[in-house]
Amino acid sequence: MNxxxxxxxxxxxxxxxxxxxxxxxxTQEEYVDHYEQLVERNPAQxxxxxxxxxxxLLPLYRNQMEQAVKIEQMISGEQEExxxxxxxxFDELYDEISNLETEEEWQEFKKRILGKLPA
Length: 119
Hints:
Elements: H1 3-16, H2 28-37, H3 43-54, H4 58-76, H5 86-98, H6 103-114
């Protein structure tokens, strides 16, 4: 599975509010502009779509979240079991992507997430 494409599809869904069938990715600035111009939204429908589009991304992002907590624990000396629900991972992923404003931020996000994929 091409995780770069899955991230692009998820980003498209977040900002365009519909399914990314045969889509052409835009820049982050274009996505933000489009999102800000939307007059009508269907939050329930959009959340359902986001859940579907994020399914393949959750394990990857969960791993990133767990690694970050483990690093914090190493620094602080704490030793707790780290576990995140699918809902927590989804919310964090959605929040992080929806708060990106520039293409440069998007590219840095992708680099951080995809750069840690196993070879």
